[in-house]
Design brief:
GO terms for molecular function: 8-oxo-dGDP phosphatase activity. Helix content is 29%, strand content 28%. By secondary structure, it is α+β, with helices and mostly antiparallel strands. The protein has two domains: 175 residues, Alpha-Beta Complex (Nucleoside Triphosphate Pyrophosphohydrolase), CATH 3.90.79.10; 102 residues, Transcription Regulator spoIIAA (2-Layer Sandwich). The strands form three sheets. Strands 7, 8, 9, 10, 11, 12 and 13 form a seven-stranded mixed sheet that branches. It has a four-stranded mixed sheet with strand order 2-1-4-3. It has a two-stranded antiparallel sheet with strand order 5-6. α1 packs across α8 and α1 runs parallel beside α9. The two termini are 35 Å apart. The mean pLDDT is 95.
Length: 306
């Protein structure tokens, strides 16, 4: 567990990737960069590419592209699926042990899906992923904000027992952002449709993080959901162990103690900034916080609501 002295350190711990000459650009045939591949994955990709005819990928210098014969989204999707199926069968990368049977879209420059791929495999190609995070909160009789915080289940394959936003989840292929909000509120916190529908999109946070499985540039659509003071979310699908209702000073304390899943800490900090708990007058790093909450990512995303 990493202990922090400031909000800025919390953000830097997550938004940690810098330009590295050893990174290989993964691009579409039109030149659009859609991912970044690390050397270890490149070695495995080169070996796999030699076993398939025609080769699905073109490896030149510091760039990987699809073969020219893979002209459609379905063809590119099948090529990536075959690659990951083989790596999964061979147990080439630990990331694929967490296979979820959940597809994520990878976007081209026109904002439309260029191909889709298994969620667990996305760090291997370093493609951008998109999710929703919901800050559920309430106000006491004096108007003071309290935030609902989730404790991830001990059985979670990633970040077990860590603190999390009340509700969060990746946006599956074919789902819109709001549909994902409604689905995740029900599955993770037993929040019914009529209450979940009140959640409103309050912005987006972007960051570029490095995990044990590879690079992960991410954009999270941030939603706020004010709950009635007498309402309590409840675990449903086993992904959450329990929920806490804490004032923002308690949230800050747990965050600096390193108890939050790193990207969820970013979403909580964004909430604190927007609701005036963190201000330019009480935090000397205020401007730098904004830079790390809204990192410019070199990859395209959807051009319309998902």
């Amino acid at each position: 567990m990493v202990v922090f002295n400031s909000y800025l350190q919390v953000l830097q711990h997550c938004d940690s990737v810098t330009t590295d000459a050893n990174h290989v650009s993964f691009r579409l045939c039109d030149g659009t960069q859609v991912g970044t591949i690390l050397p270890g994955v490149m070695d495995a990709l080169a070996s796999y590419n030699q076993t398939v005819t025609p080769a699905p990928f073109v490896l030149t210098g510091n760039t990987v592209t699809f073969g020219n014969h893979l002209e459609t989204m379905d063809q590119r999707t099948q090529a990536v699926s075959a690659l990951m199926d083989q790596w999964r069968q061979d147990k080439t990368f630990p990331a694929l042990a967490g296979w979820r049977d959940e597809l994520y879209a990878v976007y081209g420059s026109d904002g439309r899906p260029a191909f889709v791929m298994e969620r667990a495999a996305t760090p291997l190609l370093g493609v951008a992923t998109f999710g929703v995070h919901i800050n559920a909160f309430t106000r006491d009789t004096d108007g003071k904000i309290k935030m609902w915080v989730a404790r991830r289940a001990a059985t979670k394959p990633t970040w077990p027992n860590c603190l999390d936003n009340c509700v969060a989840g990746g946006i599956p292929y074919t789902y819109s952002t709001k549909e994902t909000v409604i689905k995740e509120c029900d599955e993770e916190a037993s929040i019914p449709h009529d209450i979940a529908a009140r959640a409103y999109n309050a912005g987006v946070v972007t960051y570029y993080t490095s995990t044990e499985h590879g690079l992960q540039p991410e954009a999270q659509y941030v939603y706020d959901l004010e709950l009635p003071i007498d309402y309590q979310p409840a675990p449903k699908d086993g992904e959450v162990g329990c929920f806490y209702l804490w004032d923002l000073d308690q949230v800050k304390e747990k965050m600096l103690q390193g108890e939050f899943k790193p990207n969820c800490a970013l979403v909580a900090i964004d909430f604190m900034v927007r609701h005036g708990f963190i201000t330019a007058d009480n935090d000397p790093d205020y401007i730098d916080l904004s830079y790390h909450l809204h990192r410019t990512l070199p990859f395209p995303g959807p051009k319309k609501a998902q």
